[in-house]
Amino acid sequence: MSELALHHDVEVGEVLEHSHADTSTGIWSGKIFMWLFLCQDALAFFGLFAAYLSVRIGAGEIWPAPGMTHPAAGIEPNPLNINLTAVNTFILICSSVTMVQSLKSITSGDKKNMTRWLIATAIGGAIFMGIQFTEYNKLIHHEGLKMPHSLFDATFFILTGFHGMHVLAGVVYLSALAIAANVGPYGKRKWDLVILVASVALAFGIRQAIITFFSLDTLLASIIGTLYGALLLSMFMGLKWLMKKSDLPRLVEVAGLYWHFVDLIWIILFTLVYLI
Amino acid sequence: MAEVQANSESSKHTHPNYMAVFIALIILTAIEVIIAQAGLPHKAMVIALVALALVKAGLVAQYFMHLKYDAKFLSIIAYVPLIVAGILITFLSLEWAFQPHWLF
Predict the structure, then answer these.
(1) How do the domains of chain B map onto residue ranges?
(2) Which among B15, B36, B86 has the least Cβ separation from residue A67?
(3) pLDDT digits over A233-263, tens only?
């Protein structure tokens, strides 16, 4: 891809503001914070990748080969569906594009389109989660995969599950941002109540979904559900507070960094877990 | 306030052609899926797929996450720990690769 092709859109005239005299680096501190957060999060993922690759390489030929859903007798089948996951990868990449469109809209002052693209991105993430949920359902209830069964099962669920939790957090983050941006920092108090109710509903819904479909321990499911409920509420309140101190394009850009990071990790995960 | 500000002292940050990056990512993903199911020798397949994944991840980081256009300071924050982690993963994987298959 030529440099020229990549820059052909530059004339649109949007200018993203990055430099601020109030920081010694000239970069908004919120953006630096997000990058530092993403780095430590990436290191957590890299730790899991290291563990996965260790057992994967150590297993050699014993590890079920990708794409071998119905191998000859004596060879361990690999139940992971490459084509379905490729579709999921496509959806996540599409959601990254809608995210940058959202940023592009707000840098030209178009809040309405920014909201539309943010919602489209959150929907993309939700579809990704839906497909992953379908895949999990098939693998657990039809293929008999369970975490304690084997290292193949354990590494698959830990890696994809940890990433899936990030996608869900991203959907919550983007939804909170879309609502907060339209409610505004001094919006009516009724929105706080609406988000509070939504947070409780989200916490309870996630708890029930985990118990029903994955048969996890009730306490663990409650903790995970509560964390996501608290995330929605704190994101909404936090973003409202931040909007008093910072402008919207910066907040959208930082949210975009998180979302693209989730996409980036999936790109690596897709290759390591599904393809090789 | 939630409003778009035009700060004259700020550095200009332009948007790349996101659609070109998107098309490149889709094409590379399609190539990955084809390679994974083409029945190539395993080592060649792994090298090709990992290389493609790194290119795709690089495109996302450089263009979607704007590292190419942001201050170098952010690139240092982003890449230095990853390089260290890459070295760690490589040596850990090699160490385990030479262990007997006691795990299985």
Answers:
(1) 18-97
(2) B36
(3) 999 999 999 998 888 999 999 999 999 999 9
Q: For chain B, what is the HEC assignment?
A: CCCCCCCCCCCCCCCCCHHHHHHHHHHHHHHHHHHHCCCCCHHHHHHHHHHHHHHHHHHHHHHHCCCCCCCHHHHHHHHHHHHHHHHHHHHHHHHHHCCCCCCC
How far away is chain B from the Cα of A134, in angstroms, using its nearest Cα? 20
Q: Where are the domains of chain A?
A: 20-64+73-275
Judge whether B24 is closer than 8 Å to chain A, CB to CB: yes
Residue A15: what pLDDT? 44
Q: ipTM of this predicted complex?
A: 0.84
User: A20-64+73-275 maps to which CATH number?
Assistant: 1.20.120.80
pLDDT for residue B12 is more than 80: no
Per-residue pLDDT at B1: 39
Instruction: Inform me whether the pLDDT recorded for A206 exceeds 90.
Output: yes
Confidence of residue A63 (pLDDT cuts 50, 70, 90): confident
Q: How far is CA A105 from CA A185, A242, B40, B54, in A?
A: 20, 20, 44, 29
> Is residue B104 within 8 angstroms of chain A, CB to CB?
yes
- Interface mutation target, options B9, B29, B54, chain A, most CBs of A under 10 Å: B29
